[in-house]
Fold:
Amino acid sequence: MLTYNSFASPMLTDYYQLTMAYSYWRNKIHDKPAVFDLFFRENPFLGEFAIFAGLEEVLSFLERYRFEDEHIDYLCSKMNIRDEDFFKWLAGVDASKVRLYAIDEGTISFPNIPLIRVEGPLAVCQLLESPLLNLVNFPSLVATNASRFRIAAGREKRLIEFGLRRAQGIDGAVSASRYSYIGGFESTSNVLAGMLFGIPVAGTHAHSYVQAFKGPGDISNPMICGPDGRQSNLLEISMEIRKELNFENTNLGELSAFVAYALSYPDSFLALVDTYDTLRSGIPNFLCVALALIKLGFKPIGIRIDSGDLAHLSKTARKMFVDTSLFYEIDLSFLKIVASNNINEEVLYSLNSQGHQIDIFGIGTHLVTCQAQPALGGVYKLVEADGQPRIKISQDLGKVTIPGRKDVYRIYGREGYPVLDLMVLTGDAPPEKGEKVMCRHPFNEIKRAVVVPERVEPLTRLYWDGRRVKEKRSCHEIREFVLKQLSGMRSDHLRALNPTPYKISVTRNLYGFIHDLWAAEAPVTELG
Amino acid sequence: MLTYNSFASPMLTDYYQLTMAYSYWRNKIHDKPAVFDLFFRENPFLGEFAIFAGLEEVLSFLERYRFEDEHIDYLCSKMNIRDEDFFKWLAGVDASKVRLYAIDEGTISFPNIPLIRVEGPLAVCQLLESPLLNLVNFPSLVATNASRFRIAAGREKRLIEFGLRRAQGIDGAVSASRYSYIGGFESTSNVLAGMLFGIPVAGTHAHSYVQAFKGPGDISNPMICGPDGRQSNLLEISMEIRKELNFENTNLGELSAFVAYALSYPDSFLALVDTYDTLRSGIPNFLCVALALIKLGFKPIGIRIDSGDLAHLSKTARKMFVDTSLFYEIDLSFLKIVASNNINEEVLYSLNSQGHQIDIFGIGTHLVTCQAQPALGGVYKLVEADGQPRIKISQDLGKVTIPGRKDVYRIYGREGYPVLDLMVLTGDAPPEKGEKVMCRHPFNEIKRAVVVPERVEPLTRLYWDGRRVKEKRSCHEIREFVLKQLSGMRSDHLRALNPTPYKISVTRNLYGFIHDLWAAEAPVTELG
Structure:
């Protein structure tokens, strides 16, 4: 079975990349050296940070980057080009002449910082634009979204990604599972993602399971073998407890479903309790079966609530657990409450303020489709061609690109937090620990700051030099890296409401370089 | 090369489907007959309709529905089940005992109408829930979104899907291309989607192409062979026209890029004109090269504008074309104006109200990520188990399911428009042309209507009976079907602002059936 999406081929590109490639080829500039930066211009979700993700997929894509015969045949038939030699050239294209620099996958990142820098023959780098953007934009968006949910829920809660059914396409789902995990979730319901990436999978049962049981007659065999090796009748014991606790008005189909489920998973019994009536049927039925399991020596997990007022229901459920534990004089504090149903960042903050009793959140639609902002506007811009820097100017200041080959350094202050990212022209002296450096806003003349770094971390690394030159990193490693960084950032940059912007700057030399080029290229506006 | 996504395997499911399957199997109810309905509860985008899509992918998924050895090995290692026989059973599962009824792909559809009805062994139908929802939700959402853009732009405009770089994952992009086409777009920039589904591909060049040219020196050979077989120097002729028209302040790198592009595509020259300055450099440069091409006997296509005020720029561009055509006394009315840059439904309506001069829209992010609502809430609910109808009740009226096997009929009125959809219990007499029928709101006792159908169209058809029992339909056929239906609906149901709801109803018999079951299952709420 393929561990990558079979659609990730060189054909996954915009048609104009191919028409441009032909025109470069025809004008014999296709092999001239070019440098492209991949970056985003604005942080997503009205926040002040993003998590860079997708790099491992980019590298695996480069490893397989070759047009197949049928691709060439298709392009031949569509492109209306008589030059057969172009297609011969195209059939020989691969990523062996490309170098790719990047910041590590999982790095907390900011606007205008090159996440990836691609160097190589102009036409090949051009062809890579669309797939690389596709392979970075959504992963980074989801990882960022997941990290925001993690921050909102708090470090001690467990978060499960549940989004398969509502995701944008098959791969929208698989990517969302992978990058939610990287962004700080614990597990996914998506079995394929579990298998492909080694992510823990989680899940219990649905409403339809409960509905499928009409009554005890649907349980084929109520006997269960306890940890002590003795056979017991789980249904009978549950029914006795039901009587003892005066829960005799609960839905019997639901109770039977719970018993049947507990018979299948005595070590990990977790019941969905809102099929008929959460407080008057679901939780009482759960308690009957859970207490029966405890009596036999098993340890049930808890309940899942999928509708209604999650704060109120979770608090009432906890109270019912406490009351029952007092009644039987046993400890039930280990029972977990899972909540799902349309949870987003605001819901998490609202639940927090209400003192909810939820231990685990199952989050789907809002997480995986990034409802608050469903696209990250990452771009891929030419910054050098044939050895000369290029600038893309625009009437919109936010859309001006920073020309030239640049490396990024993260500078840490005395308190151990990152204080700013500094872009330095490749080849210029990097900032040094303890040495004062002037940092300038790339576009705004007024904004300048002097900093004496306590520590300097070079972020830009060579990942591909005709072939992969760094070890593969697993989802687990990247996830750990993300979580470590999140706890190492000043929390005011990460908070949801009015976060403090993190400073992005350029050296004095790079500033001059940008502005000289800008002045040379921009026409003076004539009004009227 | 695979024509389907390699991730579309039985493992593309939620883990709880597998835990439920085991529990059904262990309780020996896995083979009991079950019926599930797939439907949505609310129209997307604050509209009053949706386009049902994804059926062909569902059928192709069923054809390949089999767990592979490595899937079974993975599940064995994860599921903590000692019953080896369950995995033997699972390894033998396929869709050969499943029947699938559906409305035709591309049908305009409405809340609560079963889009798909799945019948078969309980455990198998259960396993299909997550993948079927994934394969229907996003396709239907994108097709609906595309049809709304089509309605907003007007039938005579051309629409190109441009969303690859911002889509949610690889397949988010490929699916968006496919279903935007089905929803009424003309073409896509996505080459892979073009190849896989036969969708026309479109595209020209990017800003980086223009930036890659510093001046005439980057053109390797300015000579071009005209339709008459004579060689001419395109650069020289363009430069002469530039002088004639007093356009000598335009950016020379841009002019060179346009000449180079025209040399590559003399029959289909379309220039992106906003790299430096749309009105003072881009359009003048385009005109120089376009007029040179015309002089040599070619027919250029036009310009693309990718930033700025699209209404103002398109009107000014048109005026410049008209002025030039008067100056040279030639017809330039065939020149097309393509616009892109963050276009959504509202932008289209706003452009309409300003009398824009755009012929072709390139639409990306908002279309493919469905920014206005990035998920369709399609659900898959058990409506019959072991021959008995099942109802999922809920305190939220909108979440009650309609139990039992149902067929859907579309009823047309005297003016030839559909007036309502009627659900009938399978086996009950269908509505007949000219015969009065009582139609009831499924949940609201008060809402009733009598209708005499002018025409009755049965919508529910058998598509899968252990194997595909209907011919494959191409994207082109489905697209034609969508466009035909859109023009056959009363426009007030389709309009963007305050559209009229379309009536969804049930027969008197089905109404009674729902409400009897509801009363039997629902507990009477106790307050206090």
Summary: Chain A is about 40% helix and 20% strand.
